[in-house]
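Hi X.,

You mentioned you wanted examples for the new student's onboarding notes, showing what a folding record looks like when two proteins sit in one file. Here is a clean example. The first protein comes first, with its sequence line followed by its structure tokens.
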Amino acid sequence: MTDSITAAIDAQLATATFVDPHSHIDPHAPAARSLADILGYHYYTELAHSAGVSRDRIEAPGLTPEERVERIVAGLGPLANTIQHAWLMEIARDLFSFEGDALDHTNWRRLADLVASRTAAADWEETVLGKNRMEAVFLTNDFDDPLEGFDTSTYVPCLRVDELVFHTGKAGVLERLGRSSGEAVSDRAGVHRAIGALAERFLRRGARAAAISLPPDFRPYKPDAAAAERALAAVRSAGPAAAATDRAVLAADLLWRVAECCDGCRLPFDLMIGVRRSVYPGGVYQGQDLLDGRLSLADYAPLFNAFPRVAFPVSVLSHPLNHELVSFAWIFPNVYPFGHWWYANTPAVIERDLEQRLEAVPRTKLLGYYSDMYKLEFGYPKFAMYRRVLSRVLARRFVGERGWSEERAVDLGLDLLVRNTRRVFYPAAA
């Protein structure tokens, strides 16, 4: 009985159109053009490497796209049990009419030909957006991105500030900030003005959020102005070799300034908390970072308290932090559980985290899912995966256990899948 209710809920949710509030899409090349574009997604390179394909084989200099695909395909066999493999085959079957349950040396060229043929169509990008049922896709834009040459109503700018906050001392970062903002950045006041100018420019170009990925040892607070000025001077002088204490003070000061700008511009500030970079330096490109749960969201209470008008969509990577996130969203009006990020983006983890959220957080605050995709094709299986988990939870917990009607359960599902993203990121239109 529950299976049939799940299927009925899923069928109704599958007709909805929605906004994807976080991706890594390049708006100048949003869709795949080859099988190499699809298999180049870091999930396949890192899992193939984990299963025994050497990094040198995957990332050898001078490899042609065809050679790289052949080497990744050779490592796909042990991945057949993973959800990432399921995404790949769902794309192959449903978007490219491939017949088969797996890719190997006997059939990958057939799929490569299908991908090349379909993606060569002038309307392929629009076709995939339609298959995904996406009205718009949020981007991840460098702070000095000119934001030109694409439709910002479909590909929505998002000011990503990781580099600005945590790598201010890298060669060229402050110079780029000055050029892109038109402000002199020789002192703290100038840097603060420049960040304000960036936020205003992004807002004029249709931005709907700012975003940052935060390490587990970061603590947000507003430093004393004199201490922040000294930290900036030290980082300008020594660059990445500046003392960790100076870099930490400067990062806190700059993040606080971004939050002030979000407050003034009425932009949500997406916080993706808990990733530790370069844990495995021997890994493939983008396969070196891992979660680290040695933190508490209590460290973010000063930020949430200081900016009650700023919406903070928060993503976490571990189940204990999800419980904290549920508790914070329970209490703080401006904290929103946001998607199922990276290592938490598998059906078993989503289901457990989603049940916690649905049982304890007001329904209007649950920002259900985002794709985190690099090519549009991956929006199709990722959102389908989330929708199936959501339908299963709604059928079991709400229809089966609470006696809700299917219609009432679907309405709740639409809050998570469709409405809440619009409420938070498009408040004037909600």
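Then the second protein repeats the pattern, sequence line and then tokens:
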Amino acid sequence: MLSRVLGLARDVVVASYFGASGSADAFFVAFKIPNFLRRLFAEGAFSQAFVPVLSEYRSQRDLKAVQQLVNYVAGTLGSVLIAITVLAVVGAPMLTAMFAPGFYMGDTAKFELAAEMLRITFPYLLLISLTAFAGAVLNSYERFAIPAFTPVLLNISLICSAIFLSPLFDPPVLALAWGVMIAGVVQLVFQLPFMARIHLLPRPAWGWKDEGVRRILKLMVPALFGVSVTQINLLLDTVLASFLQTGSVSWLYYSDRLAELPLGVFGIAIATVILPSLSRKHAERTGEQFSSTLNWAMQMVMLIGIPAAVALFVLAEPMLITLFHYGALTERDVMMASMSLRAYSCGLLAFMLIKVLATGYFSRQDTKTPVKIGIQAAVANMVFNLILIGPLAHVGLAAATAMSAFLNAGLLLHGLLKSGVFSWAAGWWSQLLRMLIANLLMGITIFWLMAPGAEWLQMGLWQRIGEMSLLVVTGVLVYVVVMIVCGLRVRHLRHG
């Protein structure tokens, strides 16, 4: 929660200093490329392949074997990432042209600035991937707080860079690129003492032929695509948005960041916590408990995800005005970003469910099935993009991502049901009916209380904060009271 709130503060500062300008577009592309690869390699495929194998080593072998696996993985992962980083820094213009072809074809200055910043930001992939490796080890040993806190350091670094370093650079946006690099170093160093406490501080060694490393690689290669389809879809949005009018990349970025707030706070958190648990239950062959854990996780996601999506849809414009309409961000930017935020909010529940449902496969060391599903969703996303970008511009890109996310989540759920590892627990329909009634009444209430967008633009900072706080608190109270009246009890929220 702290990480995501500070991430929001970071985006407020960036919006205030750089708005939705061409330089902001260039930074978001330069940051998105290593950040996308981080989610693909580190948080996504690597963690989902590494944690089940490490959990198996922990439950079936001694500490020496676990330490050896950690050493080999650290050395092999680090060596591969160093090679990738060197190639990317040398070939930064080619990468920029690949991920933002619209810059290359239509705006030389923006293209050159993006390529220059990419050279600075790309080493972040190496640093943050090793940070994610350390976090995966800590998560496997139930040390969840430290990896969860670590992203706070990135946000602090970028906020300080925008405020204190930007006056020292020409153009000022270069300060953000250096802030990314600094954050990568700080995040990695921060986690090392905590690995030492559990006696698993790595002594990197090349282990390409090690049996454990080979198993992780075998699981990781297909998972590279399967777990990160959402991120691939968002990156495709950036590629296509680079052909649209200046500001489109930034509008999608700001709206995506707001949509990612509940996803990061709850969806990813729940998925992170249940992965080691599901891996152990699968290793111990306790199928009923495996299904029960997935049922609980899905119910928690829906309990939080549906009202979050409703609130983002109804309050899109007031939220963006309250958070970002200061300094360089214009009224038009707010209006354009609010449209794509509403489109993203329609897919929020699916984004969250994907995170949880995918663990049902990865915990069983099945990475091939999500790949097949991911390919179908990615192809569908591109088709939706091409259909919708013409009439809806950047909003069509966000809508296509939401639609393909529901396809992805639906196919993942169907596969778990078909394989027999998951079955619906008793009370699902009554729980869903409660949620629908509560969300309908909550949405009507906050829509009725909400002032028009023009009035929000005239409000001062503290009035905006007060009005938004009143709407959020009222919405939460209506939702909780209706859920309780409809029969929700504390025991329904407990697992086990």
